[in-house]
Write a structure and sequence with these properties.
This protein has 4 domains: about 1-25 and about 490-605, Beta Barrel (OB fold (Dihydrolipoamide Acetyltransferase, E2P)); about 75-355, inorganic pyrophosphatase (n-terminal core); about 380-485, Diaminopimelate Epimerase, Chain A, domain 1; about 610-693. The longest helix has about 35 residues, at about 345-380. Helix 12 crosses helix 15 (about 345-380) and helix 13 packs across helix 15. Strand 4, helix 8 and strand 5 (about 175-180) form a beta-alpha-beta unit. The two termini are about 20 Å apart. The protein contains 22 helices and 24 strands. With about 700 residues, the protein is α/β, with parallel strands linked by helices. A 6-stranded antiparallel beta sheet has the order 19-20-21-22-23-24, covered by helices on one side. A 5-stranded parallel beta sheet has the order 3-2-4-5-6, sandwiched between helices.
Amino acid sequence: MFDRTPKSSPNRQQLPLQRWQVTPAQPKLAQQLAQVTNLSPLIAQVLLGRGITTTEQARSYLEPESVNLPSPLEEFADLAVSIKLLQQAIASQQKIAICGDYDADGMTSTALLIRALRSLGGVVDYAIPSRMQEGYGINQRIVEEFHAEGVQLILTVDNGIAAIAPIARARELGLRVIVTDHHDLPPELPVADAILNPKLLPETSPYRGLAGVGVAYVLAVCLAQELGQSKGLVKPLLELFTLGTIADLAPLTGVNRRWVRRGLQLLPESQVTGIKALIQIAGVQQGEREEVKSQKSKVKSENLAPQSLKPEDIGFRLGPRINAVGRIADPQIAIELLTTNDMGLALERAMQCEQINQHRQRLCGEIEQEAIALVENLYAASLPLSRVLAIVQPQWHHGVIGIVASRLVERYGVPVFIGTYEDETHIRGSARGIPEFHVFEALEFCKDLLEKHGGHQAAGGFSLRASNLEALRSRLSTFARRCLRPEDLKPLLYIDVQTEFKQIDLDLFQQIDALHPCGIENRDPVFWTQNARVLDQQIVGKGHIKMTLSTNCRSTKFKAIAWRWGEFFPLPPRLDVAYKLRENNWNGKTNLELELVGARLSEVAASNSPSYVAKFDYNQRSYTCSLSESLQELKIVNTEGKILSIQQGQKTGILSKSEADNSEVDVTQPPYFQLIKAARQAVEVTASRSHSR
């Protein structure tokens, strides 16, 4: 029941397990950069933390359109060959077939090339392998069917770089093959007529970070320009590029950042009928975040600027609805959505995406809880030694276990390999990593145990015989111990700059727009504040904590939300908090709110005011209490977030039901007297344990 929690070393039960990496402050250089960029020193410090130290670098970052890009034809060695093959196929009306993938990147890539090639006069069909029956990538069945249907040119999108045998078979049958992919390069490349993959480019290339949809976009636009038919075609393709790039978590650097910035401005007035329908069904223009839909009265939603969407609108709302289709349903639904010009059909398909995504959410929740129970019972104690988590269960839906893997990485801080049985003898799985662990290299290290595998640094997929499972666990652990130190086994939180609440205002928030679009490798700035005081807190929605925070200057208060932190409720009364800034527009008023991404027990509070924290039960209810020795203040928090504060020697206390609802109570009377007595007994036990150690 009691929990010794010294301020300098919080445990996972009280707060998220994290390690903070705070960018070292450079106040003089930040002030100089602020002057030349007309930005706040706080935002200038964010730029410094991202390696932007000169005026020229700052200008290139803040004005990406000012940078002169090399032509894709100069960067991609096989791009000219690919364009020539497509020109010939279009001119002679040869049948072109696209082999796509069932994730958002693969489906937007497929839709993009279908729209482009048909617009340019091509005869185009497509196929996407079955996630459940066949798994990722082009296969021999698809090749044979393409050949039987008279296809003469195959285009792979978001796959193909490791498809040695299927592409060799296509060439045997006399088919031309263009591979467009972005996954890591295997030791042997397929014998295709042309290969377009940014991993073949130098790491300094601005095209290096393209997702599959980015490679498809480059190919389509260059082909349209070569044919003199790019007018009116580029904008809808750019919208699909933007949707797929963000949904695939591609880095928002180089050309991705430049083109996504343009695409986000186009999406609110989309020229793609299916995107219009999806925006309408998902409620994006109302700014309603998916996590708070069912809590409208408790959590005020963000009202987005109408002239541009933000990456989180795609990442949290549009992307998941498309991804869900490929995960647990028929990808044709998403392809029809993104290629039709019929608004009625588009709305019908968008509604299907919505319903499928709701089902996907339920599946994820169920599997996540089962996985957590399995880990806690069997594997949690050994994680510091194994440094990797590999779990397999029957009857888990293969389409969603990758999402569950990401959540387990967030929870346990180790790479996660999660699988389910396809039958009694075969397992198929997904993998997610942490920054210090390269998933694809780990799979390569185990390739003799696997039947099929692929991926990149952060994620991958694999299949194996069930008889190899224990050997795979051992091999993965060997690889993990070589590249991971014990201190790496906590989720890493990157923090940009320390901030006082009084420095935060709408002007600072508006300056963050200069950093957009934010996402992978160009993350939202994360601020942190020492020794924040939790004035009130409550559980809202499906396990989120809504609270009010202040520092010693109580006139400066901020509402805050911590998504999926319900297991840490109630939070301790004093915290160092890490957060992003969010704008809230409600009833004509604009306010800033904090989105908590990290918290730790305050070291300042520990040094100035040692505190003992304990959890206890009284009258069949659970409470958390804390006693501050220097202030001699006892605080008791119940599961509803109500806080009772009592100063030493006082007969009255303050009962806080919310920020605006505080009242004095007589603590010498029931029910408070016995509750306080139970709380004091709890902290006395904690204090005695602390002193004995």
